[in-house]
Amino acid sequence: MTILKPQKWEEELLLKQCIKQFNNPITLHSGDTSTWMFDAGKILENPVLSANINRWLTSILNDDIFLFGVEFFGAVLLSSLSRPFGIIRKDGSVYRSPFEDRLPIWAEYLSIGIFDDVVTTGNSILSAETIISKKYNKKVDSYWCILNRGNINGINSYISQETLHEFLERNKLPLAIKGG
């Protein structure tokens, strides 16, 4: 499988458009606090960002993988592609879809991947992996996201850690997050 590697300008554009800075720390969904957050919704407002992410997602999805998107933006970004995918909700359920009770017969022979917009602690991906294992008796083979904020090993990310660190340093933003 050949995965498209975004060019540096594509990564920079995404970070410039999607990172919001705050004077006071905010609490992230993970419960950690930070003075910055990544707003994946900005991708949908910018045609260039949308096209770049769509091209990257298309390069991930050759014929041998079935992806589950983690609610909310993981699933929203996958919806731009012309192929079926599953949705894992934050509450641990599988979103009502044709795949709620079982995978389609053709997907039984595919590798399984999980896609989330931002990974900070990895808890959402681990939760989705547990659901897929229990509900479908399938092993997850790959993990994908737009931004691996927590620098967690084994997760394929659109934004490289090098570009993220350079961007944060230039903008005087802390890499570290604090427990909530």
> Biggest β-sheet, characterized?
5 strands, parallel
Number of strands: 7
Query: How many alpha or pi helices?
Result: 6
Low-confidence stretches: none
Mean pLDDT: 83
Structural class: alpha/beta
Q: What is the N-to-C succession of helices and strands?
A: HEEHHEHEEHEEH
Silhouette: globular
| Distance between the ends | 39 Å
Q: Helical percent range? A: 25-40%
Q: Which strands sit side by side, in order, in the main sheet?
A: 4-3-5-6-7
Q: Radius of gyration in whole Å, from Cα?
A: 16 Å
Assess the beta-strand content as a share of residues.
Answer: 15-25%
Question: What would you note in describing this structure?
Answer:
This protein is α/β, with parallel strands linked by helices and 180 residues long. It has 6 helices and 7 strands, in the order αββααβαββαββα. The chain has helices at 8-18, 41-45, 47-60, 73-78, 123-136, 161-170; strands at residues 19-27, 33-38, 65-70, 86-88, 111-119, 140-148, 156-157. A 5-stranded parallel β-sheet has the order 4-3-5-6-7. Strand 1 and strand 2 form a beta hairpin. The protein is globular, with a radius of gyration of 16 Å. The model has no long low-confidence stretch (mean pLDDT 83).
Q: Summed up, what is this model?
A:
The protein is an alpha/beta fold and 180 residues long. It has helices at residues 8-18, 41-45, 47-60, 73-78, 123-136, 161-170; strands spanning 19-27, 33-38, 65-70, 86-88, 111-119, 140-148, 156-157.
